[in-house]
Design a protein that fits this description.
Chain lengths: 611, 152
């Protein structure tokens, strides 16, 4: 143990949390009653603790183009108490604790949608157009091919622009298509195959006759839809009078085959080629064929794959039905976060808060390692317990935790969009459309059995640890359940505020203390919940662990008190007890912060560690 | 059963009337989308003189979606795993509706003639192939002897 003395000292409005080096007095986190501390409603902070942490440590870097309409955030600047009563103590804590130079760098991020990103890309196209001197549509295809990486494209472009345009299928090669295709590794095999085709169609002689001319490009040919009588389509093998489409390559197919073909590919985000060769369809062609603007779908899908390929900087908001993307501009501070056992919590425009690294909800005081360890353990050991986390699995590719919804084994990661099999965690592709069943399940079972039999060196030990786990698990679970109920409570809070307005003529602003209370209740509850994961992995014999557990019970009491207060339905009583709301909310806030810091201390000192 | 698309009928007719040398594909009488396939090991390859059974299935979306093909006969090959699944670009990302059953089977035959251990599906086999090509080929020959039908 390091011998430095430190104290968690808040000013008079805050808890006084003091303890010094080797000895941790049991009561050092003990607090005075909020009333004794003289918290007045004026002294109370509207915002939740995590917001403060964000303000303090990961101040949003708000871009001009950033659509941040985070009202609680704006309040920070208007709130005269912000600076005095809360922010200061945090910095004091940091300095005095001497926790490895204290702070973590600011997290600079923005919240985007695929549409935003696509618009940025269009701006890029605009910027590149004078350099490339080709139609913007073609630049889009180039960017799409290079995963929207402008630098890489520019590098290649200067070296070999002509080849590139042919390779990517923007320009047909002069004369014979096949010569251009031959330069391009994998593509060769297909087109060879197609070219060597002995048509299976009945007008075989005709096809054979054409074989040599087929790839000649008539100069006059335009990319357009035409109407043909008795057209024989080589894809569906139907002979009919129909609209057809073809590119300069003269591979002509009926419009319904073309539509079907494109429809399936819009969601891949990949460049769509002619069915017969590597010539690319441009957005304009796609819209023409589909009869409505469908190319945006393709573009947005392509942006999605861009996001998943850049999952170090970009993360999907893991909340259901939220399409926000958090773009962390600089990831270099992340190691510092993990070194100090902070977690990089971010917030999307819909106010969903989550951990950028692991995609979980705010899980402080647990760090990402403890969180993931805990969840894994829960999955292994609590299959018989009915709990939501047994329905989540870590994405084998990006490690974000995703939830299984329903019985289908085909999983799609909400963050990186990786498709995998729930049972074997392998790539989904080879599983196909249930044509191949997953066969790795059995092996897994065997492995588990083996593990169990080798691990039974002492049955009592196993039982003991299982018992310990079950206890913490139950506590965790209890708070999970309560958090859900609190959340429901929160859903109604808007109505409650309205009721205050209507029945008592209270202004909306004045009624916000209710919203703040419920938010703080949620934050406190969540911290409490995750604190059981920290407690589980902490050395129980250590004094600091005991202090941590004391803090848990203090927060637990504070949370229950606030929760009880929030059950009050009568608007008049609510208004009468407004001071109570302020005080109890402030107390939960302080207790939450104390628990988080104490937990982080356990982690920094290695008293709490996974395995 | 739902009516079979013209495209599948035409392809099937032609597979019967004008078969590819060394390859047979027979539709199942109960399900015309399901084919029993045999492929002869190409001359000069470790699979020479063996006849391999495969199954091929045309999914509902065929030809927009690639056929599903799988080896039924055990085979030692870096691009074919122990479940008989085949790693071939045209069966996955590079599928085009202009390709056919015939071309797919030809490609598989070509894959037997020239394995590609750098794009493996069966990692252990591929490793073996890269480290000790001769040994791997011998093993492939042994397996052909053991598991494939004999060509008479
Ligand atoms: Zn057609
Ligand atoms: Zn073409
Ligand atoms: Zn969100
Ligand atoms: Zn995390
Ligand atoms: Zn993922
Ligand atoms: Zn599987």
């Amino acid at each position: 143990m390091e011998g430095y003395a430190y104290e968690y000292s808040h000013d008079s409005s805050m808890d006084s949390i003091t303890f010094s080096d080797t000895e941790y007095p049991r009561n050092s986190y003990e607090n005075k009653n909020p009333k004794e501390r003289g918290i007045s409603k004026d002294k109370l902070i509207k915002n939740t603790i995590v917001d403060h942490v964000l303000t303090q440590e990961s101040e949003f870097d708000i871009d001009d183009n950033l659509l941040y309409s985070d009202d609680e955030y704006d309040e920070d600047y208007d709130d005269p108490y912000m600076n005095s009563s809360f922010i200061e103590p945090i910095s004091t804590i940091k300095e005095r604790k001497g926790l490895s130079k204290g702070s973590v760098p600011n997290l600079k991020y923005e919240c985007l949608t695929t549409q935003n990103i696509f618009e940025n890309m269009l701006a890029k196209v605009h910027h590149l157009q004078p350099i490339f001197n080709i139609p913007p549509e073609d630049i889009l295809i180039l960017l799409q091919h290079y995963d929207w990486n402008e630098e890489r494209l520019l590098e290649v472009w200067t070296d070999r622009m002509d080849d590139l345009l042919i390779e990517i299928g923007i320009n047909p090669s002069s004369g014979n298509i096949s010569s251009s295709i031959n330069g391009n590794g994998q593509m060769r095999s297909i087109s060879d195959i197609i070219e060597n085709k002995n048509s299976y169609c009945n007008n075989q002689t005709e096809t054979n006759k054409d074989e040599n001319e087929e790839y000649q490009i008539p100069n006059t040919r335009t990319r357009d839809i035409s109407f043909k009588n008795n057209f024989f389509c080589t894809i569906c093998c139907e002979e009919k009078s129909t609209e057809t489409f073809s590119l300069e390559c003269n591979h002509e197919y009926c419009i319904s085959c073309y539509r079907h073909y494109i429809e399936d590919k819009l969601y891949t985000g990949n460049i769509i080629n002619c069915m017969g060769c590597t010539l690319a369809l441009k957005n304009d062609d796609i819209d023409k064929i589909m009869g409505h603007p469908s190319s945006t779908k393709l573009m947005l899908s392509s942006i999605k794959s861009f996001v998943s390929k850049h999952n170090r900087n970009y993360k999907w908001c893991p909340f259901a039905d939220c399409n926000c993307i958090i773009h962390l501009k600089d990831t270099s501070s992340l190691p510092e976060y993990s070194r100090l056992h902070y977690s990089p919590f971010v917030k999307c425009i819909n106010l969903h808060k989550f951990c950028f690294t692991c995609g979980f909800e705010i899980h402080a005081p647990a760090d990402c390692i403890i969180t993931n360890e805990w969840v894994k353990k829960a999955r292994v050991e609590s299959e018989n317990l009915n709990w939501v986390l047994s329905h989540t699995k870590e994405c084998p590719k990006c490690s974000v935790n995703i939830e299984k919804d329903g019985g289908c084994n085909h999983m799609v990661c909400s963050s990186c969009k990786y498709e995998f099999c729930w049972i074997c965690e392998g790539d989904w592709a080879p599983h196909g459309n249930s044509f191949y069943q997953c066969t790795l399940y059995k092996n897994d079972d065997n492995n588990n059995n083996n593990n169990n039999s080798t691990n039974t060196n002492s049955i009592t030990d196993v039982n003991k640890s299982l018992k310990k786990y079950t206890f913490y698990y139950k506590m965790f679970n209890e708070h999970e359940v309560s958090a859900k109920l609190d959340w429901k409570l929160g859903q109604n809070v808007g109505n409650k505020v309205k009721e205050l307005q209507e029945k008592l003529g209270i202004s909306w602003i004045e009624g916000q203390f209710l919203t703040d209370s419920i938010r703080m209740l949620n934050e406190g509850r969540t911290a409490l919940k995750w604190s059981f994961a920290v407690a589980f992995y902490s050395d129980a014999s250590h004094n600091l662990t005991k202090i941590f557990i004391d803090n848990q019970s203090l927060l637990s009491k504070a949370v229950e008190d606030l929760s009880e207060l929030l059950q009050i339905k009568d608007p008049e009583i609510i208004m009468k007890r407004k001071t109570d709301f302020y005080n109890k909310t402030g107390y939960v806030e302080n207790r939450t912060f104390a628990l988080m810091e104490c937990g982080r201390d356990l982690l920094c000192k290695g008293i709490c560690k996974a395995n | 059963m739902a009516s079979l698309p013209k495209r599948i009928i035409k392809e099937t007719e032609r597979l019967v009337s004008d078969p590819v040398p060394g390859i047979t594909a027979t539709p199942h009488e109960d399900n015309l989308r399901y084919f029993q396939v045999t492929i002869e090991g190409p001359a000069g390859s470790p699979y020479e003189n063996g006849i391999f059974d495969l199954e091929l299935y045309l999914p509902d979306e065929y030809p927009m979606e690639a056929p599903k093909v799988r080896f039924l006969t055990k085979i030692y090959h870096p691009n074919i795993d122990r479940l008989g699944r085949i790693c071939l670009d045209i069966l996955k990302t590079n599928w085009s509706p202009a390709l056919q059953i015939r071309t797919v089977l030809l490609s598989i035959q070509a894959l037997l003639a020239s394995p590609n251990p750098n794009d493996p599906l069966a990692n252990d086999v591929a490793e073996d192939w890269i480290k000790n090509e001769q040994g791997a080929k011998n093993k492939a020959r042994e397996w052909t002897e053991l598991y494939a039908h004999k060509k008479n």
